[in-house]
C-alpha cells in the first residue's frame, strides 16, 4: 500500500486529463495494422512474390510484431522509460510509412489507367524529386498472374525487408508500452482497469477500421492512398502524444526483474557444492515471508544458502547470495514454461490458417452482390467478431452460470485455455473441409477463380476468433496470476511471445511441407492445402495431449 507522501507526489501529474491523449494516440497508431492484415496482397501484387513465399514473409512480420512488445517493455522498465520508447517507436513507424508510400504505385505507376488531376500532380512532383532512385525500388508492374512478372532484385528485396523490420519495431514498440504508461497516470486499480478496457476497445475499433475501410482503400483506390492515410495517422498520433507531455506522470525505471533471475542462476552455479540446510535461519531472507525454499528444482536452493562469511557480513553480493523470494520466483517461471510451450505450439495451426486465408480468398468469388465486392483481407473481420463476442459472453454469462451451478468447482484459467485448444483443432478441420471443396470446384472446371463465395471462409475464421476468446484471454489471466509480483508488467507481453513463436514455427512447418511434399506449389489450385490443414489439426491434437498432461500436474501458486 502506498504511503501518503508518495501518493501526493504522484498526483502532481497524471490523472484522467491524460486519458484522451493516450486513447487518441493508440487508435491512430493502431490503424497501421491494416498494412499487416493485407500485407500478403501487397507482396504478391506489387513485388510478385509466390504464394508460399508471401505467406512466410507475412508470418515473419506478424511474429516480430508479437515479439517486439516484450523487448520494448524490458527496455522501458530497465532504463529508458515508457515515454522514450513510445516516441522512438512512433518515429520509426512514421519513417516506414513514408518509405512504403514511396514504394507504392501511387508514385511509380506503369499501368495505363485514368488518374485524377491531383494524383498526376503528386506523382509528377515526387517523380521529379526522386526520378533517379525511386523507380528502382520495386519491380516493374505487370499483369496479375503473368509468367513475365519480374521478381525483386536483391537490393529491392533488402529494402523491403528492412522496411518490414522497422515496421515491426515501430508498431510493436508502442502497443503495450503505451498501455502501461497510460495506466501509470492513474492511482487506483479500479481506474487502471477502466483505462485498459477503453484502450483495448479503441484498438479493436482501429482494427475494425483497418480490415474494412483501409483494406477497401488499398484494393480499390490504390496502395498509395492507403499509405498516405497510414502516414498521416502516424504523424497526427505522434503529435497528439507529444501535446500531452506537460500533463504526463513519468515513472522512473526500476531496473529489469530479469537481473534477479540471472543472479539466482549464477549464484546457484557458484554454490553448487554447498550442502543444503533444513534450518530456515541458514537461508537469506529479506522480509519475503518464506521459511525455507521448496524442494522443486532443489539445486537452485543453494543460491540462498548463507556461507559463514556471508552470515557475519552486512554487505550482500547479489551475484553470490540471493533471497529465498528470488529463488522461488525463478521456480514459478520454470513451472509455467511447459504451459507456455503448449501455447506456442497452439499458435502454429492458427498462423498457418491465417497466412493462407488471403491466398485462398484471391481464388474465390468476393462479390456480395452485383454492385459490391468484399475486399479479401476484410474477411479477417470474422475472427475479430468471434473474439469480441466470445469474451463478454464468457465473462458475463457462461462463467457466472458455471459458478452458480457448481460453486465448489469454479472454472480455472487452465480449463479455459484447454477449451481453446479443442476449438482451434475444430477450426483447422473446418478449414480442411472448405479447402477440399474449393479444390474440387477449381479442378472440375479448370479455373483460376472458382465460382465459390468468399464467405465460405467465414466459419473457420469465426471459430478461430472463438478459440482466441478462450485461450488468449485465459493465458493473459493465467500469466498475470501466476507470474511473480516483479513480473506483472511483462506478464501479458510474455503471452505475445507465444504468438511470435507460433508464427516463426509455422514457417518451419511450411518449409518442411514444401521440401517433403507437393502440397504447396505457386498455384494453390495445383496443390493440396487441405492436407496442410489436416496436418495442422494433427499437430493441434498432439499438442492438446501434451497440454493436458502439463495442466493436470500444474499446481496453482497460493498467495
Describe it for me?
It is a single chain. This protein folds into three domains: 12-247, Growth Hormone, Chain: A, CATH 1.20.1250.20; 258-325, no CATH class; 334-553, Growth Hormone, Chain: A. Helix content is 67%, strand content 0%. The chain contains 18 helices and no strands. The chain starts with a helix and ends in a 6-residue tail after the last helix.
Describe what is shown at a glance.
The chain has 559 residues and is an all-alpha fold. It is built from 18 helices and no strands.
Kindly provide the name of the CATH class of the largest domain. Answer: Mainly Alpha
Shape: globular
Rg from alpha-carbon coordinates: 26 Å
Category by helix and strand content? mainly alpha
Please give the structural blueprint.
Blueprint: H1 4-10, H2 19-30, H3 33-37, H4 39-47, H5 51-80, H6 82-103, H7 117-130, H8 154-184, H9 189-221, H10 223-243, H11 258-270, H12 308-312, H13 324-361, H14 381-405, H15 413-445, H16 458-482, H17 488-516, H18 529-553
Features:
globular, Growth Hormone, Chain: A, 3 domains, mainly alpha, 18 helices, disordered N terminus, 559 residues, 0% strand
